[in-house]
Amino acid sequence: MRFSTWIRQHLAALRALLALTAITGIVYPLAIFAVAQLPGLHEKADGSLVDVDGTTVGSSLIGQSFTDSGGAALVQYFQSRPSAAGDGYDPMSTAASNLGPEDIVDTPARASLLTTICARSKEVGDREGVDGSRPFCTKDGVGAVLSVIGPRGPDGDVSHPVRVVSVNEACAAQPFLDTYRGVRVDCAEPGRDYSVGRIVPIRGNAPDAPAVPPDAVTASGSGLDPHISPEYAAIQVARVAKARGVTEEQVRALVDKHTAGRTLGFLGEPQVDVLQLNLELDQRHPYQG
Questions:
Q1: I need a surface site. Which of 83, 84, 90, 142 has the fewest CB within 10 A?
Q2: DSSP H helix total and E strand total for the chain
């Protein structure tokens, strides 16, 4: 009697397993796939791919680089914002850098977030012909940070430093400051740890509102953002127009065409679709370089 009950229980469990496997493993996926093929959903379900003359050139949901094989920006294209996803815009490695505002000292393994932003700002400024300076950055595009070494007071300040080192400027670089509180500023010896001193970022005389906007120097949280701000697009207009041999007004009109406002009128910020903008530039004003 007990053996018969045991068999019935296990047969019931087996039937439930087979039924749930069929429902969740076959019927449900097929139903979702079928719904995804409905008009209006098919394109999004397939990745919102963008095709030109039968060739897939990207996705409207994923950013991409417009650079040459060496990583240099192509002058005829609007540039996307930086990406921290893998080698750049990698959907399989979507991520942020996870570095925060206190990451200001370079190490032998990598540049700090501050130096990365400073270097990007200088590069964009040089490329677009605008002032690339930012607060807490040197004119050469590294973090303007000192290690002030000496006895500390109750508040942690070093009122009478005995040595000052520009920690992000390796020897034999000329430090961005000659002196600090009357003490000569030294360059940093490669591999030397200067954490014994008080780490002091120096703001400098850069404007409060840099000409190079934040999205030109910082990656998005996903690393896949396909849009840039209208401000970043605006400083690229002159370069793109010159490269393509057209007027800035013609390029600016296309930027306006591919600029979307805030979602529902109040969420987020206006944004420019870089891929669609570059595709229309190729169509209307082909690059002859």
A1: 90
A2: 8, 10
Question: What's at 121, amino acid-wise?
Answer: S
Name all contacts of 282-288 with Cβ < 8 Å and 24+ positions apart: 284/254, 285/244, 285/245, 285/246, 285/250, 285/251, 286/244, 287/76, 287/243, 287/244, 288/244, 288/245
Number of C-alpha atoms within 13 angstroms, CB side, residue 23? 6
Q: What is the length of the chain?
A: 289
The predicted pLDDT at position 216 comes to 97
Q: Where are the alpha helices (DSSP H) in 24-141?
A: 28-36, 42-45, 113-128
**In terms of pTM, does the model score above 0.85?**
no
> What is the band of 46 on the pLDDT scale with cuts at 50, 70, 90?
low
CB 36 within 8 A of CB 47: no
Q: Integer distance in angstroms from the first to the last C-alpha of the chain?
A: 89
Cβ contact 270:229 at 8 Å: yes
β-pairing, 198-201 with 145-149? antiparallel
Give the closest residue to 257 by CA, choosing from 239, 233, 240.
Answer: 233
Query: Using CA atoms, how far apart are residues 112 and 142, in angstroms rounded to an integer?
Result: 9
